[in-house]
Amino acid sequence: MEKLKTYFAESWDEIKNKVTWSKYSELQGSAILVLVASTVFALVIGAIDWVFKTGLQIYYKGEF
């Protein structure tokens, strides 16, 4: 039990005093970058999906 107490005490000390935390403005910038990149990626994948769907519909209807 004493080892467990020591582990938690040392872990808390490391988190509180030794870890370098990012500034809030840096976190905001990173979050915005991830949001924009995810949106662009989703739009590209959606466009590719639409092109394939439309192409296959035209092919199977015989309207080419």
UniProtKB/TrEMBL annotation:
Component of the Sec protein translocase complex. Heterotrimer consisting of SecY, SecE and SecG subunits. The heterotrimers can form oligomers, although 1 heterotrimer is thought to be able to translocate proteins. Interacts with the ribosome. Interacts with SecDF, and other proteins may be involved. Interacts with SecA. Essential subunit of the Sec protein translocation channel SecYEG. Clamps together the 2 halves of SecY. May contact the channel plug during translocation. It is a single-pass membrane protein. The chain crosses the membrane at residues 31-52. The keyword Transmembrane applies. GO terms for biological process: intracellular protein transmembrane transport; protein secretion; protein targeting; protein transport by the Sec complex. It holds the Pfam family SecE. Belongs to the SecE/SEC61-gamma family. It comes from the Bacteria. The keyword Protein transport applies. It is found in: Cell membrane; Membrane. This is Protein translocase subunit SecE. GO terms for cellular component: plasma membrane. The lineage of its organism: Bacteria, Pseudomonadati, Bacteroidota, Cytophagia, Cytophagales. InterPro entries: SecE_bac (IPR005807), SecE_sf (IPR038379), Translocase_SecE/Sec61-g (IPR001901). One of its GO terms (molecular function) is protein transmembrane transporter activity. Keywords: Cell membrane, Membrane, Protein transport, Translocation, Transmembrane, Transmembrane helix, Transport.
